[in-house]
Structures are given as structure tokens and as C-alpha cells.
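Encode chain A's predicted structure.
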Amino acid sequence: MPKYLYFCSTCGDEFFAYHLMSERLEKREECEDECLLKRLPSFPINVNKNKKEQKTGNVVKQHIKDAKEDLKNEQKKLKEKEYKP
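Encoded structure for chain A:
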């Protein structure tokens, strides 16, 4: 469900609300008086600045590499359990 940033001009609060894209928040339970809510624009922020790692192909390659390493380690553990008297 999308997260939206709202501003209440009655109490001066900014808060986040989760609701469907087709819905619009019109009143807030925390405000006793009539709320005057305004939905503020919010923009997604890309925190990771390393664009090379963000490419889908690189992410998939890294996941496959990690999965192979995990598989080798698990196989090693199973062999050690198998051969112990």
C-alpha cells in the first residue's frame, strides 16, 4: 500500500498515511476540530549511489554467486555429517 505525506493546517502536523491510490484522506482522528488536510508531494530517493550494482543483471549475477557459495558450504556440512563415525 502506498505511503503519502499529509499536512494538517489546523494543528500544523506533518504525518504519513497508508491508503490506496484511489482514496484520499479527508479527516484525522488525532485532530478534535475540523481538519484541513493537504497531501504533500513526496519523491522516492535512491539511497545507493553506486549505479553499477543497481543494474538488474549485476544483482542477479551476485545472487547466483552467493547461492552457489551457500550450496557448496551446505554440501560440505552434509559430507562431514555423513562420514563422522
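The mean pLDDT is 79.
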